[in-house]
Amino acid sequence: MLLSLDFSSKTPIYLQIRNQIILGIASGELAAGEKLPTIRALAEQSGVNMMTVSKAYSTLRQDGYITTDRRGGTVVTGSSGAGGLSGHYLGALRVIAAEARLAGISEEAFVDLCRGIYNGGVDNG
Amino acid sequence: MLLSLDFSSKTPIYLQIRNQIILGIASGELAAGEKLPTIRALAEQSGVNMMTVSKAYSTLRQDGYITTDRRGGTVVTGSSGAGGLSGHYLGALRVIAAEARLAGISEEAFVDLCRGIYNGGVDNG
Amino acid sequence: MLLSLDFSSKTPIYLQIRNQIILGIASGELAAGEKLPTIRALAEQSGVNMMTVSKAYSTLRQDGYITTDRRGGTVVTGSSGAGGLSGHYLGALRVIAAEARLAGISEEAFVDLCRGIYNGGVDNG
Amino acid sequence: MLLSLDFSSKTPIYLQIRNQIILGIASGELAAGEKLPTIRALAEQSGVNMMTVSKAYSTLRQDGYITTDRRGGTVVTGSSGAGGLSGHYLGALRVIAAEARLAGISEEAFVDLCRGIYNGGVDNG
DNA sequence: GTGGTCTAGACCACA
DNA sequence: GTGGTCTAGACCACG
After folding, report:
1. Which terminus of chain A faces fewer neighbouring Cβ atoms within 10 Å, N or C?
2. The dihedral of CA A15, A18, A24, A25: what is its sign?
């Protein structure tokens, strides 16, 4: 599991870490029960501060994607407890769909794109 | 075209304005050629700073959704110049799809959701 | 609204801030809609770091006690969205009740204590 | 007396052990004079480090709930030496009551809850 | 001027 | 050795 961070991106680093870990879990690259690197290790390996990684882990923990065992170590849970997409994501989807429409993407093309992405296709992170 | 802004939202106000205008265009509520309110008018009506509206209009202009003619009028173009979704949106879609998967949403449910949203269903903005 | 922090306490400073603000809201000292001090102001006034106050505000925001208006300022919401006490608090109550029993406090004395505290009595923070 | 420990809980393991033993004493499951398992036995049975159990026993001993005789046996005392709730617990109660208020729990509901918990009701540990 | 984010250190409780 | 917490600075997006 290697992270590729864009330090000049507008999305905060801790969110980039969070997102890539979620993608890793969804793609199966990170199996449920698997141990994540320690905060220190991931921070050094990625060239960011411990607290940044810590914040990423905190949000993942809050959303139920990972749990930290007090005896040391952070482990992948495998699924959020939620039963549906949050309203925030629905709003984002709505805007994306609108932009797609205006960019001339047909309904079928858009739906195919969504299906492909759901199945892990459409490479590059 | 009434804007509903959430001042306690995590998304910046100027982006909320931008997004809602894009949604308005995509839904047909704002027709191509239609004139948008002046910055001052929209700012007053919405209770936000003029700079904020200005920034929203700027990004819309940059993306080709609106144009400003010499006399200062702002009109809807009707479609972005882009031929596809920007990489930023692809990344967002990828994360949304991953979260959906982990929330237990099946491929078909997700695709149906995307189709519904593309067609303007799934209410509330 | 003055905070009294115990820097040698075992409970983290950000939690002490959080707790005292919750107590302030419940006691009515902080009315719903009232503006809280800025992070910087509270940090300086209390002699702690900005990030510590920031963390306190973040947790309060997550629990629905306050909201931050993007136009600047943090405002008291007045009530958490929750409908009941979290399991964590139930566990804590259980231990407290057990300790009270073993300390020789009778059922009525304990219940009276709880009632008094609910009504804001039993002074000192 | 079986311990159920949550290694992903925010409360330290040694405190979970301590709390459950106190609950056991208060509920009568652990009678005064009864012998507790050795540190080693409890550690092995629970899958935690001996140091952790040792720390739990130490705090219990400090608070007067158990005593250790010369031969190493640890027995239940049956009541803390204290005559009232410690200030720490009063503070915790105050916060819990405030949160309950803000969560919309009425005085009577809260008092009933406290009474029920004092009497050992409201299941699950 | 506001909050959000990040850094480079540091200390401490826990196990 | 692990995560949690804190500090004293700093930069940036937003409004």
Report:
1. N
2. negative
Closest to B98 in 3D by CA, of A111, A116, A26: A26
Residues in CB range of A52: below 8 A, 6 or more apart: A13, A14, A17, A43
Nearest CA-CA distance, residue C20 and chain D, Å: 8
Compute the average pLDDT of residues C61-88. Answer: 86
In A, which residues are within 8 Å of D7 by CB distance? 69-71
B93-111 residue pLDDT tens: 999 999 999 999 999 999 9
What tokens appear for C101 in the block? 């029993």
In a domain? residue A105: yes
Same-domain check for residues D98 and D72: no
Length of chain D: 125
Residue B18 lies inside a defined structural domain of this protein: yes
Residue D41: its H or E element: helix D39-46
Categorize the per-residue pLDDT at B121 as very low, low, confident or very high, splitting at 50, 70 and 90: low
* Distance in Å, residue A51 CA to nucleotide E8 C1': 11
**B8:C71 CB<8 A:** no
Assigned token pair, B2: 């009434």
Q: What does the block give as tokens for B66? A: 């609106």
Question: B94 and B43, same structural domain?
Answer: no
Q: So what's the pLDDT on residue B2?
A: 85
B20 and B71, same domain (yes or no): yes
Q: Are residues A29 and A56 in the same domain?
A: yes
Does D103 share its domain with D55? no
Are residue A94 and residue A65 in the same domain, yes or no?
A: no
Query: Is C109 part of a structural domain of the chain?
Result: yes
Host H or E run for residue A67: strand A66-68
Question: Which residue range forms the structural domain that includes residue C59?
Answer: 13-76
The Cα of B38 is separated from the nearest Cα of chain C by a number of Å equal to 21
pLDDT of the residue at B87: 86
Q: Which residues pair with A52 in a beta bridge?
A: none
Instruction: Measure CA of the first residue to CA of the last residue in chain B; give whole Å.
Output: 13
- C-alpha–C-alpha distance, residues C106 and D114, integer Å: 12
Residue D124 lies in a domain: no
Do B60 and B101 share a structural domain? no
What pLDDT, on a 0 to 100 scale, did the predictor assign at position B124? 44
One domain for residues D20 and D63 = yes
Q: How many domains does chain C have?
A: 2
Mean pLDDT, chain B, whole residue set: 90
Residue type (1 letter), B84: G
Within a 10 A sphere around the Cβ of C88, how many other Cβ atoms?
A: 12
Residue nearest to nucleotide E15 (CA to C1'): A71
The two tokens of residue D104 are 């919309």
The pLDDT of residue D69 is 84
Among residues A37, A15, A16, A34, the alpha carbon closest in space to that of A25 is found at A34
Q: What is the pLDDT of residues D2-55, one digit of tens each?
A: 899 999 999 999 999 999 999 999 999 999 999 999 999 999 999 999 999 999
The CATH number for C33's domain is 1.10.10.10
